[in-house]
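Chain A, query sequence.
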Amino acid sequence: MITVDTELLSDTFVDLADTMVDDFDVIDFLHMLTDRSVRLLSVSAAGVVLADPRGVLRVAAASSDEAGLIELFQVQNDQGPCLDCFRTGQPVTAADLAGPGQRWPRFAAAATRAGFGAVEALPMRLRDQVIGALNLFSARTGPLGPAELRIGQGLADVATIGLLQERNVRRAETLAEQLQAALNSRVVIEQAKGKLAERAALDMNQAFTLLRQHARNTNQRLTDVARYVIDSPTADFPPPPRR
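Chain A, predicted structure.
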């Protein structure tokens, strides 16, 4: 039986529901979802895939580079639990990726090589509208327990409601446009991670942590910080905005 940090769980639900702010950042919101999922549940990594305006799944966020690559593998090869989860709107469990008779053999082999033994794919759904999936990766084999699955699905549900609510409040933009902007921003952030990692001799996860911490500490959008790092020939980070 797991021990859940009830204070962190409560804070997470509040943070995921609080999207009606002027400086709402979809990318940071989705990374919070993956990071908190790892902290609250007995999983090694988490990722989010979202549908673009054409209904095609794209990788939107991941708690580690390993999880991001496996998410990308699923999308590029049109095979894996997250795709089935998105298409059916139902949770999908792969409890032993190294076992025989795999439903997604190429995905299972790639995930096993990346160090994962099991994955749970949870739909990001509100009634009949499915916008993506939250994927929980475990180093060990075996499914998550019922209590953890309820928490994981609760996180996915609240995040979905938050995104849809943000769309309804800001009718000047559609959800599809917001999600497309988020997916485009991810490309900029990945480029900045690589540039910062090369400058400071860091791995990609450490570089992303620095980017995100600086954005939060200086009250700037993550994408703006990333663009500055890419465009600047010398400076690692932009100065905080003037008040």
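The mean pLDDT is 87. The chain has two domains: 6-170, 184-231.
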